[in-house]
Specification:
Elements lengths: L1 E11 L9 E12 L12 E15 L10 E3 L6 E3 L7 E3 L2 E4 L8 E14 L4 E13 L2 E2 L15 E2 L2 E17 L2 E13 L1
Antiparallel strand pairs: 1-2, 2-3, 3-8, 4-7, 5-6, 8-9, 9-12, 10-11, 12-13
């Protein structure tokens, strides 16, 4: 009749700065199966009716490895230096290829969801609806750089926020012949902003 799910994650990533390497990500899921309550016990319309609620935080560290420190490299014809000035003492060298950022931290997504599940017509029909909101903070952003700014890639940064709202709907029906399922059809729809 009642459902409760609790999750607590503690994740670490070497892709993020030393002082921001660890993140804690909790989540809660609740469910209430109304069709098991006494006020719906003799209901012939719905064989299953459930309300759901979810809240949680997830972390994203999906950036290339090693970007918390500056990177150096070079190749033939790219980083050679004329030490003597006459072209006879050319020596290989290195240049900075990517600027590091030791302050990178977890991108966090705070999500909330409310849902409804229905089964009707002796379980042959199904309906599901979910309404959600997701707020993303500390977006990990790898900016592009114009060619006039030099050859070193700029640092990856935590910047900006984003909010997503949406609704997902599903309506289905199963047609039976005897005890075997012969066919089923499901319509799905969603709106995302």
């Amino acid at each position: 009749r009642y459902y409760l799910s609790l999750t607590l994650r503690r994740d670490g990533s070497s892709r993020l700065g030393p002082s921001n390497r660890w993140g804690t990500f909790p989540a809660v899921g609740l469910g209430w199966r109304l069709s098991r309550e006494s006020f719906l016990a003799n209901n012939s319309t719905f064989s299953n009716l459930m309300l759901r609620f979810g809240w949680g935080i997830t972390g994203n560290q999906n950036i290339p490895a090693g970007r918390i420190v500056s990177q150096f490299g070079g190749g033939r014809g790219d980083t050679f230096y004329d030490i003597g000035g006459g072209g006879s003492s050319v020596r290989p060298g290195f240049k900075i290829t990517a600027i590091g950022n030791a302050n990178l931290k977890w991108e966090e997504q705070h999500s909330i969801n409310v849902g409804l599940d229905l089964e009707f017509l002796q379980g042959r029909g199904t309906f599901s609806a979910d309404v959600y909101r997701r707020n993303t903070n500390n977006l990990l952003f790898d900016p592009r750089q114009p060619a006039t700014a030099g050859s070193a890639a700029p640092p990856i940064v935590n910047i900006g926020k984003m909010r997503n709202n949406g609704i997902d709907l599903s309506l289905g029906y199963r047609g039976n012949f005897g005890s075997a399922t012969v066919w089923s059809v499901t319509f799905n729809g969603s709106h995302y902003k």
